[in-house]
Amino acid sequence: MTMEVDILELSDRSAKFVLSSVSTAFANGIRRAMVADVPTLAIEYVNLYDNTSVLYDEQLALRLSLIPLVTDIETYIPQAECGCGGEGCPACELSLTLSAEGPGTVYSRDLISSDPKVQPADLNVPIVELKKGQKLVLEAVAHMGYGRDNVKWQAGVACGYKNVPVISIENCDSCGHCAAECPKGIIRIEEAGARVAEEDIIKCSFCKLCEQVCDINAINVDFQENAFVFTMESDGSYIAKDLALNAANVVKGKAEELISILDQL
After folding, report:
1. Domain annotation covers residue 241
2. What is the domain count for the chain?
3. What is the model's pTM?
């Protein structure tokens, strides 16, 4: 059986698609990979040379670490897997500098990256407001890491799935109770009885309120065991499409690694 993917919505930051002919374990593996296993760049260390703002050094470092950075997975690798042994080299880290003086607000766009391909995913993230005479001069060092280790490396910020709903309606008397009760408003009453348009079925939340109010048991809400509606959002480190593909590659790599280990037994 071949896995199928049907795209419902797609933008740079979010996607919605139907993943069919896969097990629940595989679907959850893709979700977990998006959240925890796709390596992402994030600021880990900050060298502060001048900070006369109202924020402590630690507060600034925390804010900087949570600014998503556009990640080039082909150029950088996680520091723990780098040949430098964790000492830091161009393959596993990059530097961003910032120099600002008040009055005015310092934004993420004020960070100057040593690699033009790696920039803050959002240029208008406020870092700190500087009053007249206040200064902020620093160097931030970004490393590749995994969301399972720290939230700052979590590229997938809202990744989830549900089974594809199956709604069956038979011998309906068109009383309209189910339509009135449906919180999603997807049930329509026609002369032949209640009906749910095919494009609206995936909106079903499995609340089954329609079943409960139907006195003649004309409506049944079920689900497909091997088909899932995925919704996902990216923090901007990757576009949504690349995040999903990278997650699939992670799952594929783990499967290949497991096969290799079992072959050696």
Report:
1. no
2. 2
3. 0.84
